Amino acid sequence: MPTVTRFAVSLEPDLLDKFDRLRQRQNYASRSEAVRDLIRDHLVEQGWDDKRHAMGTVTLVYDHHVRDLSDKLTSIQHDHHELILSTMHVHLDHDNCLEVLVVKGKGERIRSLADHLISTKGVKHGKLTITTAGKEIV
Ligand code: NI
Question: 61 CA to middle of ligand 1, Å?
Answer without folding.
Answer: 9
